[in-house]
Amino acid sequence: MPASGLGNVLALCVSEATHDEELGCAAQALLRSSPDGPVRALGCDARDGVVTLSGVVPSFYLKRMAQVLLFRLHGLRGVRNVLEVREGT
Question: Do the Cβ atoms of 39 and 66 come closer than 8 Å?
């Protein structure tokens, strides 16, 4: 499902992501909207406006794409990308 298909759900969650709980909700929604299965399975946590990505992806490309996906979030101060790359997963 493309991110644009989330429409109002993301708009409500992202537009006023001023608290970590709201930012975490918006980050999870974006990850779940990815067309890439490994990205949909990632975990994230928000603290002080910084989202930490966790989990395993099969390539450095997907590691970077997961991070770039989150740059769309309003109220995001940064992304801490601690994803592990395991080729062939």
Answer: yes
